[in-house]
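Thought: the user wants the 3D structure for the chain below. I'll pass the sequence to the structure tool as-is, report back what it returns, then summarize two notable features.
Action: structure_tool
Action Input:
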Amino acid sequence: MVELLSMREKDFPQLYFMVNGRKEKMSDHLFVRGPSGEIIRNGIGIASSPATETLHQWRELWKYGAGYIVIKTANHEMTYSSPLQTRINTYKEGALTTLENIGKTSIEQKPIEELVSEIKTAREEGIFVIPSIASKNPDLSVWQSMIDAVSSTGVPYFESTLRYPYRGIMQQVVNELRAAYDYFDFDYNEYSVGITPIGICEKTGLNPRYIETETNRRFEIFLKLVGEYSKQKGIGMIAKLWGGRHDIPALVATCALAGMKGITLVNSFQSPPLREFPDMKEYKRANVSGGDLRRIRNSSLEAVARTFVDNKFPRITLFASGGVAVELASKDRQNVDRAIDDIILCLELGADMVQLYTAIHQDYTLLGTLIRELGLKLEEDKTFKDLGQDRSRFTGQNRPIYRLFRINQDTCIGCGICEKTTYCDAIWPSSRQAAAVNKKLSTFEIHLDDCTGCGLCATVCPVENTIVPFHKERGKE
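Observation:
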């Protein structure tokens, strides 16, 4: 949560930023404590978008008020290359912009070893940058090499994109199954979970969730090893995870026990294209981000915050992805207001700090306006005591309180997209009796005892208001 800190200019020189061509002083209400207890001028950062590739961009973002900058993810394996053709659909879901991207959005970042001098320069200039690293190779020596590089810069911590090594580990498990069972072919996706083909399960007696279970087991070992090495090098690690998984609380708890300094929940998901690309010649999953996924993000934030409530796990800093309402937008006042409301909603849901991903890369000056207006808003209420209320008094929006989901049998069309997309243990075909009553071949239902409340099924359902949140404690939707 945002903590009001009493600051004096002589104690903290980075108090000024540019707004509409004028230098303004940062609001006292924006100061927060970072994952290592250090004071940061505000909890609003820019992360891993095309806006964070170079030292020049870091300087510009800092000038317009960024509290911190997560550098575009670097990988020792990456090489310079021209961007591939990028196919992007931008569409509105209510008032929120959603991006659907297939292809690369920019040239790959330089290897982390080549960024060391630039990171040191930024630190000397007082710019607070957080390196970001990734590799699909889960070999510890690869990660030790990258950690050595970032620790040499003197930064207090770095961010690691963990879906990449998770993907690498899952690929290992899949390859082992393919080799052992006549190269049985099947699809899998680390953004949700892997599901073991029924043919292999019949041959071996393996559980249908074997791929996920085995991947998670190896991933936990990997996290412990990387966490221990980071600690030896005296640098903290922020784990960048993907939201929308039914097991996100378990993944977060694993990261906390492995000694991570923080968790970043990404507001993106990989799925079949939601809109048609006329020139698309072959099937490829699209990366979707923005407004369409806000329900998933909100559910993930709440689930993570709930994980730490009873102090069973070490409390770590929670970063959220917010402010997507200004993505590819202009300085329209409504867009700025929606972005500020979305940032505050993230804080209300338990986030300590918020990262704006591609929200401002079209116009850096938007950032100054956001920072100033957010400071003014926080002067109204510095404590965020709304938690547990039905509506945010800042935004007027319905806020997710811990809930499960239920499928309306009257409107379910039995397409099975919810079950196929989420691989969720809680979703099962309905009883024959229920299907017969509804005169359908089959419908689907959610077993409330297994539902984790992630909301992914509701997001992918093609029939509006068919999968709805259900407050079990209240006995009503």
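Final Answer: Structure generated. Residues 404-470 form a domain with the Alpha-Beta Plaits fold (CATH 3.30.70.20). The CA atoms of residues 333 and 388 lie 29 Å apart.
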